[in-house]
Design goal:
By secondary structure, the protein is an alpha+beta fold. The protein has one domain: Arc Repressor Mutant, subunit A (Orthogonal Bundle), CATH 1.10.10. The chain is 59% helix and 16% strand. It has 5 helices and 3 strands; from the N terminus they run H-H-E-H-H-E-E-H. The protein has a 3-stranded antiparallel beta sheet with strand order 1-3-2. Strand 2 (62-69) and strand 3 form a beta hairpin. Helix 2 crosses helix 5. The longest helix is centred in the last third of the chain and has 25 residues, at 81-105. It is globular. The mean pLDDT is 89.
Length: 110
């Protein structure tokens, strides 16, 4: 996917889903997981990811924990209770949106 502008609106939902499935993750790990799961079709930059993570944390969807790893401090993110509740709703909204797009770009013949 050469144009990642389409991904911008879905990024927070993808982050919620990854954290729901994996528990705690750090930023670079999220970037790699999205890249891997999309067969290298989605390339998330740090410049897109970290503002999204910070905003989600400010909105109470995520919580974070600093941990020392190999002499460095790494910030791990996980879902807050509010984030756990929001995940399925966000996934349902995204699926509904994708279905609507699909109906427009590939209408069924009558």
């Amino acid at each position: 996917m050469k144009d990642n502008s389409l991904l911008k609106g879905a990024l927070s939902t993808l982050i919620l889903k990854l954290l729901a499935d994996n528990g705690q993750m750090y930023g670079y790990e999220i970037i790699q997981k999205i890249k891997e799961a999309s067969a290298d079709q989605m390339q998330i930059t740090e410049g897109a990811l970290y503002p999204a993570l910070h905003k989600m944390e400010q909105n109470g969807l995520l919580k974070s924990e600093l941990r020392p790893v190999s002499g460095r401090t790494r910030k791990y993110y996980s879902l807050s209770p509010k984030g756990q509740k929001a995940t399925q709703s966000k996934l349902d909204q995204l699926q509904e949106f994708l279905s609507s797009i699909q109906m427009i770009i590939q209408p069924k013949a009558n």
